[in-house]
Design brief:
The complex is a heterodimer of chains A (about 110) and B (about 625). Chain A is an alpha/beta fold. In chain A, about 40% of the residues lie in helices and about 25% in strands. Chain A starts with a strand and ends with a helix. Chain B is an alpha+beta fold and about 625 residues long. Chain B folds into four domains: about 10-195, 2-Layer Sandwich (Beta-Lactamase); about 215-340, GAF domain (Beta-Lactamase, 2-Layer Sandwich), CATH 3.30.450.40; about 370-525, Hypothetical protein af1432; about 535-613, no CATH class. In chain B, the strands form four sheets. In chain B, strands 1, 2, 3, 4, 5, 6 and 7 form a seven-stranded antiparallel sheet that branches. Chain B has a four-stranded antiparallel sheet with strand order 9-8-13-12, covered by helices on one side. Chain B is elongated and about 125 Å long. Mean pLDDT of chain B is about 80; it is low at about 1-5, about 70-80 and about 85-115. The chains are: A alpha/beta (about 110), B alpha+beta (about 625). The interface of A and B includes residues 22, 54, 83, 89 and 90 of A.
Chain lengths: ~110, ~625
């Protein structure tokens, strides 16, 4: 899995590409932790180019969500593929994440919050 | 096949003869149209029927000649083709042309019928409610309505004719209309019932499959897991099931390397898997380092829950860069996960039902015991001896469980017995009656077999079947001796309990005849061990245990919990369970014999308080 970050309207967008599984989970976890440690409090994870995520990927996102919430920040997930949506449904984690169709939608909702 | 009747007519007997000769809805209609064609000497017969009293008429069947060079439908013979089957269904489609196009390959004749212009459906009009000529691309046809109970159910069209129908034709069709209408209606109704029956059977088959899944859950779970792995395109899978305390254990695996999960704690909350929200049952993999160490590349953990509890976990994994499941695969996976949940739910429901049902049988047996004081706690006492023998013989836990269930209700079949003056009528049948109650439960067969055979003799001289030796289930061989011991050591109104020396002698006499030698040896070992370890002058076993602890008697008896021998206590409550005289009671007789063998004596029985308290 690869990732890159960019900033837009004071929000950090983490763009992921590749499968999110056991092998890539540690690297993503480290990246997310680093962003939180840097003081990022508004983070959007773009899942457009993530064809598949397993339960370990979920675990990383869960941990990041909890840590972000603990420091008063926000974490949103954008544009999950249909396969990813199905993974969220199968594992019943879909209600607990903010899943947005587009970056704009995520940005608007996070601003409103 | 076109039939030429020597005296063609479309009258009641002939019409119903046709129905009787043919099976299958379409074959019957074909034969009826054939009959009409033969009777009227007109080759084209069209049958229109309606689905409801006010709906349109749909072309249900068409009999017409075909050109020689054409290949006719499967019913063609002698230049006649029958069309139908799906014609009625086609005509029900809103877009008839689309339906026809869709079935063009399957039903080319229907297309030609339409191409010939014969309408697939007709409106319910006043003209069609009475007989008359009607023009069609197949020629002018004589149309006759078919009525049943003053409702027009359809019409039959015969031809081709000239401009008007001849008198002969009119006369034949006047006679034919009523029997034809009834025959067609009967054929339709029977076809509908057969369809309904087939649906019910299919539904019942599904229900049986689902119910069977409760009886053979492991097989179903493995099948469903296999399908889930294939559907998701992953490399391996497992199902972990929760026990009563919620701990999840590996239950079923497909293509999983041996030992892979031996040291993995699958219970969410233990570190490997975690609940994101326990109420929701949402699950994720927390310890991906451990997963990586095991060589797992990807793991999808799907929670299995029902409304009340966590049932387990379905895990699908890849061990290397395998296929990434696509959305449609995960849709299938969701279905299989749901099916697995249903199977597990069924198992739990069925287990609960099973426990309730068997519990009811045990309660019924206890109620039987309460009929007479001397039969109090009979089933409990027999069960205690049977389980002791079973453990001595190292029966498995499953065997002991079946033995316990059988012993607690082994005489429940006596419910079906009528009491007569000096005994019971049809005492012979009570084992079979009792067994039949257990065999209502598909998993009750093993228990039922023990109940059914508990009066069989080892040498084949028992009842009801005269089974012999190993033919008798082991549990039944144990139960037979246990019941003999209880009955022999019970004092009843007619005779006192058998003293232990006589009991052992009687059991030995019956060794190899009535009783299995191995069972006898096991019982002897238990009994003698118990006697050897009993304190001198005291019962070899606390009397309330020996008596099966009948409710409301032993629980308030002063002999309970005291070190005094029970027979020395005047207020002892044994008369409540059929032991009015301690001198006839096995507990006293055994202690007395044991003391005598040691050159000692025991205090005599105290004068009992006579009145029931």
């Amino acid at each position: 899995m690869d990732y890159k970050t960019r900033t837009e309207d004071s929000r950090t967008i983490l763009e992921l590409s590749g499968d999110l599984d056991v092998t890539s989970a540690p690297a993503l976890q480290a990246a997310l932790q680093e962003l939180i440690d840097q003081g990022i409090r508004s983070l959007i994870v773009d899942l457009t180019d993530v064809p598949f995520m397993d339960s370990s990927g979920l675990g990383v996102l869960v941990a990041a969500h909890r840590r972000m919430t603990a420091v008063g920040g926000q974490l949103a997930l954008v544009n999950p593929t249909p396969t990813l949506r199905k993974v969220f449904e199968l594992t019943r984690t879909n209600r607990l994440f903010h899943l947005y169709e587009t970056l704009e939608q995520a940005t608007q909702e996070m601003s409103a919050a | 096949m076109a039939r030429m009747f020597s005296n063609p007519s479309v009258e009641w007997p002939r019409v119903f003869e046709v129905l009787a000769r043919h099976t299958g809805y379409e074959a019957r209609l074909d034969a009826l149209l054939d009959l009409v064609a033969a009777a009227t000497r007109h080759p084209v017969v069209a049958l229109y029927l309606a689905d409801d009293p006010e709906g349109r008429f749909f072309l249900a069947r068409l009999r017409r000649p075909v050109p020689e060079e054409r290949t006719a439908s499967q019913h063609a013979d002698g230049g006649v083709a029958f069309l139908g089957g799906s014609l009625g269904d086609l005509a029900r489609e809103e877009q008839a042309l689309e339906a026809i196009e869709a079935t063009e390959e399957l039903y080319p004749d229907s297309v030609s019928a339409v191409a010939a212009g014969l309408p697939l459906d007709l409106p319910r009009t006043p003209e069609l409610a009475s007989a008359g000529a009607t023009s069609t691309p197949l020629g002018v046809l004589y149309s006759v309505p078919l009525h049943r109970a003053d409702v027009q159910i359809g019409l039959v069209q015969v031809g081709p004719i000239g401009e008007k129908p001849g008198r002969g034709l009119r006369k034949v069709m006047e006679t034919a209309a009523e029997p034809l209408a009834h025959a067609v209606a009967l054929a339709r109704e029977q076809a509908r019932l057969q369809e309904q029956l087939a649906e019910d059977e299919a539904r019942s088959d599904v229900s049986r499959q689902m119910l069977r899944s409760a009886f053979e859950p492991d097989e179903f779970l493995r099948l469903l897991l296999d399908l889930a792995v294939k559907a998701s395109g992953t490399q391996a899978g497992f199902i972990g099931l929760a026990d009563e305390s919620g701990v999840i254990h590996l239950h079923t695996a497909v293509d999983l390397p041996e030992g892979l999960l031996d040291h993995v704690e699958l219970t969410p909350g233990a570190g490997f898997l975690e609940w994101l929200d326990r109420e929701e049952g949402s699950l994720y993999l927390a310890d991906f380092e451990q997963a990586a160490a095991l060589g797992i590349r990807a793991l999808l953990a799907v929670p299995l829950t029902d409304a009340e509890r966590v049932l387990g976990v379905l895990g699908l994994l890849n061990l290397d860069a395998g296929t990434t499941p696509a959305e449609h695969s995960l849709n299938l996976l969701a279905i299989f996960a749901e099916q697995i949940q249903l199977v597990l739910g069924n198992v739990r429901l069925f287990e609960a039902f099973n426990r309730q049902f068997v519990g009811t049988l045990h309660a019924l047996a206890r109620a039987l015991d309460a009929r007479y004081p001397h039969t109090a706690a009979h089933h409990r006492r027999v069960t205690d001896w049977a389980l002791a023998i079973g453990r001595e013989m190292a029966l498995s836990e499953a065997q002991l469980q079946a033995l316990r269930e059988a012993a607690l209700a082994h005489d429940v079949g006596m419910c079906g017995i009528v009491e007569v003056e000096h005994g019971f009528q049809a005492d012979f049948h009570h084992p079979s009656i009792g067994a039949s109650m257990f065999e209502l439960l598909p998993q009750g067969r093993a228990v039922g077999e023990i109940v059914a055979s508990h009066h069989e003799w080892y040498d084949g001289w028992g009842f009801p079947q005269g089974l012999k030796g190993e033919e008798i289930p082991p549990g039944a061989r144990i139960l037979a001796l246990a019941e003999f011991v209880v009955e022999s050591t019970t004092a009843d109104p007619i005779q006192g309990a058998m003293p232990p020396s006589k009991l052992m002698a009687e059991v030995q006499i019956r060794r190899g005849r009535q009783f299995d030698p191995a069972v006898v040896d096991a019982w002897m070992a238990i009994f003698e061990r118990g006697r050897r370890s009993a304190p001198a002058g005291s019962p070899f076993q606390p009397c309330h245990l020996f008596k099966g602890d009948p409710a409301l008697a032993c629980s308030t008896c002063p002999a309970r919990g005291t070190s005094l021998p029970c027979w020395t206590i005047p207020e002892v409550r044994c008369h409540h369970h059929g032991d009015p005289d301690c001198a006839r009671c096995f507990v006293y007789l055994e202690a007395e014999e044991r003391a005598a063998a040691a050159g000692q004596s025991v205090p005599p029985p105290a004068t009992r308080q006579s009145a029931r308290q």
